[in-house]
Structures are given as structure tokens and as C-alpha cells.
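Chain A, query sequence.
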Amino acid sequence: MRFFFTFAYQAQAVIISFYIYSLTHNKFDLALIGLFEAIPAVGIALYGGYVADKSEKRRMLLVISALVIFASIVMFLATMQSMSPYLHKSWIIPTLFLMIFLNGVARAFYGPATFTIYAHSIPQELYPNGSTWSSSSWQTAAILGPAAGGLIYGFYGITVAFIVIIIFLLISIGIIYFLKPYPPIFIPKENIWKSLREGIDFVFDSKMLVWAMSLDLFSVFFGGAVAMLPVFAHDILKVGSQGLGVMRAMSSLGAVLTMLAMTRFSPMGRPWRNLLIAVTGFGVSIICFGISRSFYLSLFFLFTEGAFDSISVIIRGTIMQILTPDHMRGRVSAVNSMFIGSSNEIGAFESGTAATLMGTVPSVIFGGSMTLLIVSITYLKTKKLIPLSLNQIQTPR
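Chain A, predicted structure.
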């Protein structure tokens, strides 16, 4: 389910960003794409976690997927050439942004629901290895989705690309139908605000959780160079939508190959030390990508950016699974979504705004430099966590 859903979602992100930029040639529109998805994803994330904790997860995922399919069908119709006599050109961009907003609403509920299902699917002692395989499934889809989306768009047009996306979403919802029901463990005995506050307090009482989430939020906020890939593909490297698909896929290729290696060579021996090293490598890769004027060299730095990011994803995901008690998984996942789940979209808004004000290349170099500064501050604030092994992390009872 996760593979087919992610494939469609990532392919859609590529073709919509390139389509909008090809119509407007406005970098700030790329910033708005991230903002329109992040606002609902962050704004109602806590409520999404509360609903996930007290609801049956399979039914919840069916509703979420139906909403995403509806948004994709509307975007498919809005971008069809044959619809131009019926839909005025000035309405196309607002319609696409509205559907992006709906996707953000769906994401606010999707993350907590899938996080809870995953946690109840395997024993706790297998979380580190299971997190690696789960993330590898996501990253594999994130490789094939952008590449397929960009290539199909480039060779056959946006209409055919959307048909493929909708087919994959339909497969995803079909697979969800065959999942077993996951009834709620949490039965609310107090009002919603007290329940939500319980999840927030738990996260902020855990130094390791809050610093891990903060590190990701600020590093991706300033290191969101991926949002500017349509500009690099269209204006700087001049490789078109096909090249854009390859560039988007290269980051995920680095991630999935690294994750497969980590099933054999785990980064959890000294998780906090390795997390700081990984985010440092991520920031350096972003700076080098911004400087590069060679398409193949740019692909290499996108590969290393994805590789380093995948290490931090595995470490953060394992830490969160271990530290979170069962009855709070939805709400803690919702807090995590506010920090991490929408950091890419918020980072896209920052990158688009900075590129509008500073220029594309200076904004990417600035973002990578700020990521290194964030790692330095985190290192100084969390020195006591660096020597800890995975076994020394406290698991709540």
C-alpha cells in the first residue's frame, strides 16, 4: 500500500510543480505549492493524531485514500487540453492549488494512521530493521515515482501521466481493503484538548525526541533544495521534464541503496552521533549541488544528499518507535508530523521565497550553510546524548 501510494504521490508532485512553473515561470509559485500543502498538514496534524488513536485505522485509510484520488482526478481534468473550452485558463492554477490543499488535509490523517499500523505489525525488537525495510519501500517508490512522472510527462504529456497516477492510487486503496481491521487502543476519557496536550507534553519531556524533531525541521527547512529542481532543470541545467524526473529520482536512489546497506550495517550503534554526522553530510551535499553546473555532478550530489538523509530517517524513526507508548502513537506521530512530516513543504516555501529574493543558486548555498549551523548548535546542546547506544535509550512502560 505504501509503495503504490508513495509512487503516485511523488510522481504527482513532480509533474504538478513542473506544469505550474512552465505556465507561470514564477519561482514563488513553487514556494506556494509547499505552503498550500503544509498549512493543513501542520494545522490539523494534532487532531489527525487524536482521531487516529481513537479510530479504526483501516477504515480511516480508506477515507483518506478516497480524498487523495478525488484530488488527483480533479487535477487530471483541470490539466487536460480537451477541457480548455470549459475551464478558463485563469482558473487552472487556483484549482490545482486547491487540490494541493486537499492533499495536505489528507496527509494530516495519513501519517498517524500508517504509523500506528506499522507499530502494531511487528515486534518491538524488530523496529530498527523493520524501519529500514519500511523506509526502503517508501524510498523505492520515491525513486520510481518522480522518474516515471517526469519521463511520462516529457514523452507522452501530462494527461497520460495523471492516468498512471490514478491507476496506482486505485491499486493502493484496493490493497488497503485487504488489510485487517486495527481497532483503537486509546479510549478518550477526557476532552480532546487534554488528550492533545498529553501527546505534546510527552514529546517535549523527552530531550532526545524533541531535539531529533527540531534537527530535522530546521535542517530540511533551510536545506529544501529539491523544491528548486524545476528551476535547475528548466533554466540552469536545461534538461527539461525528463531531466527533472531523473534528478528527483537520484536523491531517492541514494537513499534506498543506503537503506539496503543499513539492513546489514546498522547505524544504531551510536545513534545520536551518527545522526549528527548524517545531517552534516546532508548540508554539505546541498551546498555542493548549488555550486555545480554539470548535470552529472549535480546528480552525484543529489545521490549523496539522499544517502545522508536516509541515515537520519532510519535513526529518527527507530528512536520514535522505541520511545513512544502504544496508547499515544497517533498523537506523538501527529506532533512528529508537525515537525518532520511537513518540513519538506515548509522548506519548499522557504526555498522558493529565498530564491525569489536572493536568486536560485545563492538561496541553495545559503540553505545548506544554515543546515550546518543548525547541526553545530544541536551538537553543543546534546553532547550527553552522543555516547549513548540504542540499548541505553529508555523505553517507556
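The longest helix spans residues 89-119. The chain is about 80% helix and 0% strand.
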